């Protein structure tokens, strides 16, 4: 009888011990998984998707030990370019890349990131944009989790005929991405035309427009080198963009994975090595090899162009300050963040530096 009682006792003790061990292992093990639906307007075969977004998501998967997985929605899979902020904000995707400049008036102060600056790598653009977000731009993005904010690699002028002076610009019809670039094109005496980037190839081929202001990776992604045989290398700045997460999606991310997402994605270009300063040099060489004749504005001529850009900055600041927005303060801060990183903001009026 005693042996039976002892056997039952030992069985109970062993069962409890095994249960505790299993519970302990469960507590120490994975606390949950998360699947990211990632959206971007970039074409599936673009440099952005192939060298930045997919590698970034793969890095999350790798570092999380497979707890983070993803589905990529590139190009127009979930909507057109200007819709991508709302695609994420409304939860159609969990995380995505949006372009603020494509929705005029919605993020007015954030247009400071698209002023004409000489940024040749998006890794540097993110450093500047993230600093500006913390200092002054956070107010414009309520209700979403900002992962990173940036100005783009500088845009130049790509045309069907050579452009070397201000006088050559007069009367040209130039596709603009919006924002400051629209005013810069006007200031040069040309006519800005807004259209989706996917429509530019045909428009240039048929003569509907004479050129486009955009950055090198998009010249390559949309094969614009086939219709734009001349590149005037100046800086028109570019657009204000970034990666955001839907706030409800962010709340569902397991707490121990949130720091990992921030670490990997807060500067995805540096994480992946995609579209950095070194890559910019490669892209420019590729464009030249495609037969595009590149012309770098001489300093004297560039100064003429940038003087007009600076006047547009003054007008933009005056307009926003009438609406109660601290635009001049934002420009001064932006110039400070640029100078910290050896970047020249050619659109900043000299009296504000």
Description:
- With 353 residues, this protein is α/β, with parallel strands linked by helices.
- The chain folds into two domains: 137 residues, Bacterial extracellular solute-binding protein, family 7 (D-Maltodextrin-Binding Protein, domain 2), CATH 3.40.190.170; 148 residues, 3-Layer(aba) Sandwich (D-Maltodextrin-Binding Protein, domain 2).
- The protein is 46% helix and 16% strand.
- It has 14 helices and eleven strands.
- A six-stranded mixed beta sheet has the order 7-6-8-5-9-11.
- The N terminus is likely disordered.
Summarize the structure.
The protein has helices at 2-28, 47-63, 84-89, 122-137, 166-169, 180-187, 200-206, 216-221, 247-252, 258-265, 268-272, 277-289, 299-322, 327-340; strands at residues 34-39, 68-73, 95-99, 144-151, 156-159, 173-176, 191-194, 211-214, 230-233, 240-246, 293-296.
- Spell the H/E element sequence: HEHEHEHEEHEHEHEHEEHHHHEHH
Weakly predicted, low-confidence segments: 1-29
CATH class value of the largest domain: Alpha Beta
Overall shape: globular
Helical stretch count? 14
CATH architecture of the largest domain: 3-Layer(aba) Sandwich
Strand content: 15-25%
Largest sheet: 6 strands, mixed
SS-based class: alpha/beta
Tell me roughly what share of residues is in helical segments.
Answer: 40-55%
Distance between the termini: 94 Å
CATH topology of the largest domain, what is it called?
D-Maltodextrin-Binding Protein, domain 2
Task: Give the spatial strand order of the biggest sheet.
Answer: 7-6-8-5-9-11
Number of strands: 11
Gyration radius from CA atoms, angstroms? 25 Å
Mean pLDDT score: 92
Under CATH, the homologous superfamily of the largest domain reads: Bacterial extracellular solute-binding protein, family 7
Number of domains: 2
């Amino acid at each position: 009888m005693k042996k039976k009682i002892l056997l039952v006792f030992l069985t109970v003790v062993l069962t409890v011990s095994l249960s505790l061990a299993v519970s302990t292992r469960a507590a120490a093990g994975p606390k949950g998984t998360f699947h990211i639906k990632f959206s971007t307007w970039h074409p599936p075969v673009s440099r952005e998707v192939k060298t930045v977004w997919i590698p970034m998501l793969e890095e999350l998967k790798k570092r999380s030990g497979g707890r983070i997985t993803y589905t990529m929605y590139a190009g127009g899979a979930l909507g057109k370019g200007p819709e991508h902020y709302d695609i994420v904000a409304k939860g159609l995707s969990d995380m995505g890349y949006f372009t603020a400049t494509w929705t005029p008036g919605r993020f007015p102060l954030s247009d400071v990131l698209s002023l004409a600056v000489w940024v040749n790598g998006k890794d540097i653009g993110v450093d500047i944009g993230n600093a500006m977000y913390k200092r002054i731009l956070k107010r414009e993005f309520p209700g979403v989790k900002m992962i990173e904010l940036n100005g783009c690699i500088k845009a130049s002028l790509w045309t069907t005929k050579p452009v070397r002076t201000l006088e050559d610009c007069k009367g040209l019809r130039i596709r603009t991405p919006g924002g400051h670039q629209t005013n810069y094109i006007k200031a040069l005496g040309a006519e800005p035309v807004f259209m989706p980037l996917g429509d530019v190839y045909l428009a240039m081929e048929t003569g509907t427009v004479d050129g486009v202001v955009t950055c090198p990776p998009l010249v390559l992604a949309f094969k614009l080198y086939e219709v734009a045989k001349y590149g005037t290398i100046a800086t028109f700045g570019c657009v204000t963009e970034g990666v955001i997460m839907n706030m409800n999606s962010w709340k569902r991310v397991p707490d121990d994975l949130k720091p990992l997402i921030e670490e990997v994605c807060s500067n995805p270009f540096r994480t992946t090595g995609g579209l950095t300063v070194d890559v910019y040099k490669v892209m420019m060489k590729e464009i030249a090899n495609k037969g595009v004749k590149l012309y770098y504005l001489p300093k004297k001529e560039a100064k003429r162009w940038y003087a007009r850009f600076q006047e547009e900055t003054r007008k933009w600041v005056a307009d926003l300050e009438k609406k109660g927005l601290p635009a001049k303060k934002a420009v001064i801060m932006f110039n400070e963040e640029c100078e910290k990183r050896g970047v020249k903001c050619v659109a900043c009026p000299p009296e504000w530096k």
